[in-house]
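Hello Y.,

Per our agreement to keep a running log of every chain we model this quarter, I'm adding this entry. I've kept the format consistent with earlier entries: sequence first, then predicted structure.
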Amino acid sequence: MGPLRGIRIVEFAGIGPGPYCGMLLADMGAEIVRIDRPSAPPPPKGAVTQRGRSTLRLDLKDPASRGLCLDLLRNADALFEGFRPGVMERLGLGPGDVMNVNPRLVYGRMTGWGQHGPLAAAAGHDINYIALSGALHAIGPAERPVPPLNLVGDFGGGALFLAVGMLAALIHARATGEGQVVDAAMSDGAASLMAMFYGKFGAGTWADSREANYIDGGSHFYRTYQCRDDHWIAIAAIEPQFYSELIARAGLDLPEDHSQMDAGQWPALQALFEQRFRERTRSQWMELLEGTDACFAPVLSLAEAPSHPHNLARATFFERDGIVQPAPAPRFSRTPPAVRTEGSDPLRTLDGWGCAPAAIAALERLVR
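Predicted structure for the entry above:
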């Protein structure tokens, strides 16, 4: 069930990107036991990012529980946590404590600012981390930066980089028997996601302002337009051949001497595009442009997207417990991923990890 079948991971419960990283790894077949506080409530309805693993509630300030946690980690391939720097060390579960009993363990750490640096101990959220990376400055209308949900910092710069880092470290551990710490900072990851733009800026081909570049909403051929029914469409006809197809299919009447890449002409051309796309409804534009090389898509809401024919054909979404949610991604030809059923007995899971029967019995007395 997935390419990570047989990989055992301990997740220390957190919020935001931590559970999402766990969801990705569990979807790909890793067997994950999630450790949470004894007083933690059950996951709320719609906690999609907590799917696919069982939860063990332990008081990590209790020496007996901490000892049992170390015994669990002795048989794990990896762990990950998202606390502020120093929290796991104070609990006696820092890298030195854990890797002393399991030298091949991969120890994943995800924070906003990283494990060291002037801001390492400070609180923050996605918008703060992407602000420091330069990403927030580049996104939104000219008048003000706009946070792109928490996709760039928490999930892109944090969870995805932690998952990639842990998988790389797992390959190294299997080859050498040596574990290591993976320090995934959301501010670092967001900066990495900006690599192409820093390259273009350094080469003098990217303006350091919003709505001034060809793929940040500044151009007429890469932006959203409102239709007659007030729905929106997305146009991304960058390449000349795709741009020509858009012009022809949409029946856009543009000046003969216009130049696609002349930024000085973009405002006037935007006005022409706006007028043209306002003449039809979104569904009419879909009928005319969807599936062509005009680089077109309707802007779908959360309620609409799962029902789009392309998403249906690829089973991009599925429904579980009354919640429509994204299916596991990416796809694998030999080891297709699947979503495990939550709520399985974590003690039964530990028995399959090779934990000592006495330790499992002691753990059972603590959690029952």
